[in-house]
Design goal:
By secondary structure, this protein is of the alpha+beta class. It has twelve helices and ten strands. Strand 2 and strand 3 form a beta hairpin.
């Protein structure tokens, strides 16, 4: 009788794991809530990991053994945990054709408004850093929706900043997380930005440095008509004084209000 119960229990567990393998998409991790929806308790998940049916990546996070999930599958998983998380700045521009000396193992730049630490299982596989900042204050839900999309050729559902938003994210980090020189090279690669969208973003951008740097470089490169932009939109340029700051590399950055 004891042997019968043991065999039945083992058979049931085997059927459950087979069901997981047949149902869950490969190429991405999954967590306990997903496993529990299939009737797998935390204790059973731990036993599956001990027996080699699952691999424990971190606290409450699992994957199938030998399942070499890619960065996009992992990002979709993180996006479900952190609502505002998206590919931003330099990485977002790269996915949309704006690149400068992009390395094979270039650090992935992720953005979000929530405090969040990228899990070790993610950064060990994909060199990445997370920027926690509320760069746009008072943006409408429609504007937020319009500035995050899935570029052509990318995994459906992957959130990536559109070039206009990614540019301001890049300039926010210029001189700190991002070198000023490379930021300028990337800025020079921009083509035909949407003025209306930029006007809206600049009007709710919380970084005076990013706004003024954009206006300054836009004038220098003739990216768009800056004076016309300033007439049409209440761009947040700060006070009428110069904005000055010593950057991490020792460079003194001095920016006029209107570029």
């Amino acid at each position: 009788m004891v042997l019968y119960i043991y065999l039945m229990s083992r058979t049931t567990r085997h059927q459950v794991i087979k069901g997981l393998q047949a149902t869950l998409p490969r190429g991405a991790p999954f967590d306990l809530p997903v496993l529990q929806s299939f009737g797998v308790s935390p204790q059973l998940a731990a036993r599956y990991a001990e027996s080699g049916w699952l691999v424990r990546l971190g606290h409450g996070v699992y994957a199938f053994p030998n399942d070499a999930f890619d960065v996009n599958g992992a990002l979709l998983f993180l996006q479900r945990r952190v609502a505002s998380l998206h590919v931003g700045g330099k990485s977002a521009l790269a996915l949309q054709g704006v690149r400068h000396n992009l390395g094979v193992r270039d650090t992935l730049v992720l953005w979000g408004e929530a405090r969040f630490t990228l899990p070790t299982w993610f950064t060990e596989r994909f060199p990445a850093r997370y920027v926690n900042a509320r760069l746009f204050d008072g943006a409408t839900p429609d504007l937020a929706e319009a500035t995050l999309h899935t570029p052509p050729g990318q995994t459906q559902g992957l959130r990536v900043a559109v070039p206009e938003r990614a540019t301001l994210e890049l300039l926010y980090e210029a001189g700190t997380g991002q070198s000023l020189e490379e930021a300028r090279h990337l800025f020079d690669g921009l083509r035909s930005p949407r003025k209306a969208l930029l006007g809206q973003l600049l009007s709710c951008c919380t970084s005076v440095k990013a706004v003024r740097l954009f206006l300054t470089w836009a004038r220098e490169t003739s990216l768009l008509d800056v004076d016309d932009l300033l007439q049409q939109y209440p761009v947040r340029t700060g006070s009428d004084k110069r904005w000055m700051s010593r950057l991490d590399d020792g460079t003194l950055l001095s920016l006029k209000p209107n570029g």
